[in-house]
């Protein structure tokens, strides 16, 4: 099945097996392996990407539905080797430990800050409720979101 | 497996006439079932871009929501916020941001989980759903649509176009409480929603709906009528607790025992009444 979409700012046209999930298309077809598969059932959020600006579990999106959309993955954030402020904030606060959940958390954070550039603690918790981390205990992650928001507001 | 992205209801009706066709919209349930082998369609009908199945509008004394409208869109609707606040209060607790960006009320309803949170406010509002097939379009109360766990009155060749949610008259006190293990993405062990009107301390109308304690989400009509006309006092709260626990027969499963579920429902009703 032929589809065309924009992935990380680049126009992509391809012929895909319609049984693929968006997650498979990203990882297997396009070799964008930054997006991770955790549970494969929409519970853990490790596979979170943005589809037309909204966070989605790429494990639950049939690849054909990507047709005509704009997809943003973790690979689309850094520019010219410089980490995105959200990525840098996760590094600086220790919000990254084993790192497996990190791409999903960062994409969920990206979607959250698009909507609320200055989120309250409560908004952060509900914005990240679909993501699980087994290492950090979450407090460093919440700190990272506050820090990223602060730095991004200064730039803006 | 073939995949068709549909642009119109006509294409959908044609697709549904094919053998082993299944409707997919947000994929939050269907994708899991397909991968687990619980659903083996030879044709997947993607309805997510059929315009006539989407949108939120006011029609007289009701709000109509297209079956393929995402939960996030519903949460952002000023009309829903103003006229059906309980619906927003429940949807915001449903799944996670990622799930709500994709999940739909049509999908929730057809999935017919006994634990479906969204069914609770919809039942309290006396929601009707519009069922469409080749020969007719008809409205059916949501209450009679649910038949059993995962079973609905939807027949082969049919789809749901719209949900019609009558706006309740002003002055009612509403509540929704669920008990589960995690706030996000939790499957409720038990849930209870209520919509109760009082006049000078007396209950003039009570609507109660429960989840995870029966084969389908359900209204508790017998308890509702027993509450009507009663003074809202401590004696009533005690009686209501007794009555609701004896009127449900939940099962024991991996999530909780039947006895625990009965107690939880009793406590949730007490909480709802005490908040009035």
Quick overview:
The complex is a heterodimer of chains A (156) and B (276). By secondary structure, chain A is an alpha+beta fold.
Write up this protein:
- The complex is a heterodimer of chains A (156) and B (276).
- Chain A has 5 helices and 5 strands.
- Chain A is an alpha+beta fold and 156 residues long.
- In chain A, strands 2-1-5-3-4 form a 5-stranded mixed sheet, covered by helices on one side.
- Chain A is globular and about 45 Å long.
- In chain B, helix 10 (221-227) runs antiparallel to helix 11 (234-247) and helix 11 packs antiparallel against helix 12.
- In chain B, strands 4-5-10-6-7 form a 5-stranded antiparallel sheet. Chain B has a 4-stranded antiparallel sheet with strand order 11-12-13-14.
- Chain B has helices at residues 9-16, 30-36, 71-76, 78-83, 85-91, 97-100, 105-111, 119-124, 142-145, 221-227, 234-247, 258-274, and strands at residues 2-5, 21-24, 43-46, 56-59, 62-66, 128-132, 137-141, 146-148, 151-152, 159-166, 173-179, 190-199, 202-211, 218-219.
- At the A-B interface, strand 4 and helix 3 of A face strand 1, helix 2 and helix 6 of B.
Summary keywords:
heterodimer; A: 156 residues; alpha+beta; Ubiquitin-like (UB roll); DNA polymerase, domain 1; 2 domains; five-stranded mixed sheet; 35% helix; 15% strand; B: 276 residues; Uridine Diphospho-n-acetylenolpyruvylglucosamine Reductase, domain 3; Enolase-like, domain 1; five-stranded antiparallel sheet; four-stranded antiparallel sheet; 12 helices; globular
CATH architecture of the largest domain in chain B: 2-Layer Sandwich
Strand content of chain A: 5-15%
Number of beta strands of chain A = 5
Instruction: Please trace the helix and strand order of chain A, writing H or E for each element.
Output: EEHEEEHHHH
The radius of gyration of chain A is 15 Å
Briefly note the CATH topology name of the largest domain in chain A: Ubiquitin-like (UB roll)
What does the average pLDDT of chain A come to?
96
Share of helix among residues of chain A?
25-40%
Per DSSP, the total helix count of chain A is 5
State the major sheet of chain A: 5 strands, mixed
Q: What coarse outline of chain A follows from CA principal-axis ratios?
A: globular
Reading off the top of the CATH hierarchy, the class of the largest domain in chain B is best stated as Alpha Beta
